[in-house]
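dude i think i finally got it to work??
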Amino acid sequence: MEVEDILTKKFDLIKPFLNEKQIRLWGATESIQLGYGGVSIVSRSTGISRRAITKGRAELKAISLEDEKNRIRKTGGGRKKLTLISPEIKNHLEELISPATRGDPEYLLKWTSKSIRNLADAMQEKGFSISHQTIATLLVELDYSLQANKKVMEGSSHPDRNEQFEFINKKAKAFQALNFPVISVDTKKKELVGNYSNKGQEYRPKKNPELVNTYDYPDKELGKVSPYGIYDIKNNLGWVNVGVDHDTAQFAVQSIRSWWHTMGKKFYKSPNKILITADGGGSNGSRVRLWKLELQKLANELSMEISVCHFPPGTSKWNKIEHRLFSFISQNWRGKPLTNHQVIVNLIASTKTKSGLKVECQLDKNLYEKGIKVSDEELKEINLVNDEFHGEWNYTILPN
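look at this
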């Protein structure tokens, strides 16, 4: 009914200026635009007879056929497409852009950007008169599009990678069954402190973005922070110790110590064991002597056995803290400049999820010396028991 009302109003406005033939052609044009049932709709809304509309449609068709006969240029005339003149042009273009050319130093674009202008220049050197616009059209026809790099390659995989995953899972379940703590630890990416751009967007009034520094030169006074996280897998709780100094093994173990005294002992009453899952490198790496020495001190303080399971090389993203804690912290502070230490602590502590994640955070102003060496004698003092399966990854430190 709405369409018919519109047609009625249009016809009432234009009718005084049309003769009988023009009315017939106008009605035929509207019916063609409406598609199936158009003749009936136009007839009802304007009062033009169906016969007149049908006749008008025939006249319009006849005019179209007459125009085709009177064409100045025959069908198929005019400038031919480049692909018709040179059918091989697509093959030459694909040879230039194909990833298979990476290892061949003879190709023109081996060491240059494959922009459409560079491709056009290379094709012209091959003898083809072609513009960069045509290159873009041909690439679409060849099913090419602009692609960014995608991080999926982890490097060579350790042959016992899956067995180590299964070992960690089995051991974690055994500890949880006895109500012993199982924590995932790691250092989040270092962050500049100051009025710097932070990736992400947030809603603000139109044309009123947050103004930040143009350059990301570190502030000499504020420097950087190293957020060291501890994720309690069973209770879905996070603890982050924001260090202002070097990310060392002492800092890592101090973060675990702070977690235990602040959060851990609230949920675990007098356990005699704890399991730590960690990456194979960094301040808590499997080969870091200072890490094991500091864990020995912690084991002595707490009178607790500390078991450690490291993830195989190149598998840090499987560490639960990455996708259960750190990812949500990054989402929570996206688009917000980390202007000072208190802002960072508040943003981390306010991180929550619908699944119940809660996070606590503190600022660690202690200084941690770099390059501390652990002698062979000190290493022998560590009461360390290696597991039978990959003892370099899986071990327990007993209190002395």
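Residues 2-69 form one domain.
im so relieved honestly
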